[in-house]
Amino acid sequence: MAPAHGADNGEVDVDFRLRARRDTVPLLPGTPSEVWRYDATLVDGPANTLSSINNSYPGPLIRLSRGQRVRATLENRLPEDTTVHWHGLHVPPDVDGQPRLPIKPGEDMAVTFDVRDRAGLYWYHPHPHGPDGGRVGFQSYAGLAGPLVIEDDIERGLALPGGEQELILILQDRSFAGDNALRYMDGMGAMMARMRGFFGDRVLVNGRPPRTRDVATRPYRLRILNGSNARIYKLAWSDGRPVTVIGTDGGLLAKPQRLAYVTLAPAQRVDVWLDLSGAQVGERLRLISDAYQTGMMGGMGAMMGRSALPAGARFDLLGLRVTDRVRDGRPLPPDLDSTPVLPAVTSDTPIRRFELGMRMMRGFFINGRQFEGATVADDEVVRLGQTEIWEFVNDTMMPHPMHVHGLQFAVVERRRMNDRRGWSGLDSGLVDAGLLDTVLVLPGERVRIALTFTDFEGLYLYHCHNMEHEDSGMMRYYRVRA
Ligand code: C2O
Ligand code: CU
Ligand code: CU
Asked: For residue range 295-316, what is the model confidence (pLDDT) as tens digits?
């Protein structure tokens, strides 16, 4: 019997097995690459629950509905400990895939949970952290990450583009050795990479080099996940048309927003509407990541000569070629999901401050602390049912995408406090509307988020989602207490 977590009273709506294992898949032309990846089998539940992505390493797309009860049996067929974390989901601590509950090689673990979250794009990835540090960066780089979509009735009522018109895009950067072997941090660059985070030589979309798709004259929905270890994307259209955002980490916005570009930090998701109904057959459009300034860190990266695609570089992500004329004039709904979900903040809401700091050779800290396993300090205990404001103050030369487990939060204020250390060109693409589970805090910024700790008591994590930062200790537990 596998150890079981979560209230398991037998009856579930969806039952699947998710296996983490080694595999060999073709990523680039030529020799196939060795990867670690998830695959899954459906034991019980709707036939569309699992679908494979692009025949590469990303884990299967898991499609769930709000209200379903889910059992996942996690099988570790890797040579080291792992966990499976459901990033963004509001689930009990023991099914959250935290490092304190590792699955040993060869072992299984069953988790059961209810799908309580709003319709949106979430994801899953490993979260192990041993005595020598975290393995999140390594394991997800090796290929362990997959998308998870939740659907609900509100979203169904909007009849957003589906099927071929719904594109799930997982953005990741990778480096390869001559024989197409994935290369993570090694040699001289390793220390620098731990400070900056890992930057690969090229970008992969759904585990393959970017490609061009044939599309028709109709609306499309692009659901984009930044599954990269450290890279921030500046998403824009090659012809300069605005990017129409309909959702973020925690689901649909109340109303669409039009932006010149979208800043997507590691672990964040964005839901984009693209209307091609006025396009001509033969027309082409590219989704790109546009250039931005990264100050000192960028310079250091270039100096080390480690990445052919430094932070802030411009590159292509997806090509679209209009090949079909169809009549599908479905307009973008002016109102999306306006169910009130934002935590209610008053002048009495307590503010908890988190200073993001750096010490040379020792890495990054949160309030002077680094990860110490499942211990929490007095000021890391929160009350069940309480709404708080957490304020992240970034006094380092690097951006930190700050992530809180177990809930979705609202950004209530973003303020520039001091020197930006040369970072520029990302500000107006920050989408602070709606619900997020990860918020980018740029150098010199103070960002306030409002969060409410509902339903579950116990331990959760909060950390920087630059995976190399998190693995080197920029992560802590907090405790929800009744
Ligand atoms: Cu996406 Cu603590 O993780
Ligand atoms: Cu998470
Ligand atoms: Cu960080």
From this structure: 876 555 555 555 789 999 999 9
Residue 206: pLDDT band (50, 70, 90) is very high
- How close is the Cα of 350 to the center of ligand 1, in Å? 25
Neighbour tally for 200: CB within 10 Å: 23
CATH number at residue 17: 2.60.40.420
Paired tokens of 149:
């979509």
Three-state DSSP class for residue 216: strand
Q: Which of 480, 474, 481, 426 is nearest to 197 (CA)?
A: 474
DSSP 361-426: TTEEEETTB---SS---GGGEEETT-EEEEEEEE-SSS-EEEEETT--BEEEEEEE-S--TTEES-
Same domain, 168 and 302: yes
- List C-alpha distances in Å: 84 to 115, 227, 260: 16, 15, 35
Please give the pLDDT value at position 326.
Answer: 96
What is the rounded CA–CA span in Å between residue 65 and residue 293? 40
Question: Does ligand 1 have an atom closer than 6 angstroms to the CB of 223?
Answer: no
Residues at Cβ < 5 Å from ligand 3 ion:
400, 464, 466, 469
- Closest residue by CA, ligand 1 atom 1: 87
Which of 41-45, 144-148, 305-309 is the least confident region?
305-309
Name the band, by pLDDT with cuts 50, 70 and 90, for residue 2.
low
* Across 460-473, average pLDDT: 97
Number of domains in the chain: 3
Residue 463 Cβ inside 6 Å of ligand 1? The answer reads yes
| pLDDT at residue 299 in the model | 55
Q: What is the residue range of 99's domain?
A: 5-152
d(CA 367, CA 378): 13
Q: Tell me which amino acid residue 303 is.
A: M
User: Would you call 1 exposed, middle or buried from its count of C-beta atoms within 10 A (0-12, 13-18, 19+)?
Assistant: exposed
> Is residue 339 in a domain?
no
- Percent helix, strand and coil across the chain, each to the nearest 5: 10, 45, 45
Give the span between the Cα atoms of 253 and 425, in whole angstroms.
Answer: 24
Domain assignment present for residue 331? The answer is: no
β-partners of residue 480 are 382, 458
Specify the pLDDT at position 113: 98
With a threshold of 0.90, does the pTM exceed it?
yes
84: Cβ below 6 Å to ligand 1?
A: no
The one-character DSSP state at 176 is E
